[in-house]
Amino acid sequence: MSRAHEVLRVPVITEKSTHLKENQRTLAFKVARDANKQEIKEAVERIFKVKVQSVRTAAFHGKVRRQGRFSGRRPDWKKAYVTLREGEKMIEFSEAT
């Protein structure tokens, strides 16, 4: 497995990401926390064979969750919004049922 497959974890499929995909040619991915914008751009271009116009990232802190008297913490994670260049074919994801 190459670094490109380690950088991109999973696509984020929500109402907001679907709206961005249809109207602004922007895809959302859950990415490795140590990945920078250049690595994300290269990974998307290599895996999906498209040209990327820009990459925006957002870091999220894991939530504290409780079960009874025991408390735990979800891991921190990072999301990337990838905008494709004009004229590029949009990537289609299938949802697992």
Indicate the topology.
Layout: H1 3-7, E1 8-11, H2 15-24, E2 26-31, H3 37-48, E3 52-60, E4 64-67, E5 70-73, E6 77-84
Antiparallel strand pairs: 1-2, 2-6, 3-6, 4-5
Description:
Helices cover 28% and strands 36% of the residues. The chain is an alpha+beta fold. It has a 4-stranded antiparallel beta sheet. A two-stranded antiparallel ribbon has the order 4-5. A hairpin with a 2-residue loop joins strand 4 and strand 5 (70-73).
Keywords:
97 residues, alpha+beta, 4-stranded antiparallel beta sheet, two-stranded antiparallel sheet, 3 helices, 6 strands
Instruction: Please tell me how large the radius of gyration is.
Output: 15 Å
Query: Which strand-content bin applies to the residues?
Result: 35-45%
Helices, by number, come to: 3
Could you tell me how far the N terminus lies from the C terminus, measured between alpha carbons in angstroms? 26 Å
Please give the number of β-strands. Answer: 6
Indicate the mean pLDDT: 93
- The secondary structure category is alpha+beta
Largest sheet: 4 strands, antiparallel
* Helix amount: 25-40%
Task: Give the low-confidence spans.
Answer: none
| Helix/strand order, N-terminal first | HEHEHEEEE
Q: How are the strands of the largest sheet arranged?
A: 1-2-6-3
What is the overall silhouette? Answer: elongated
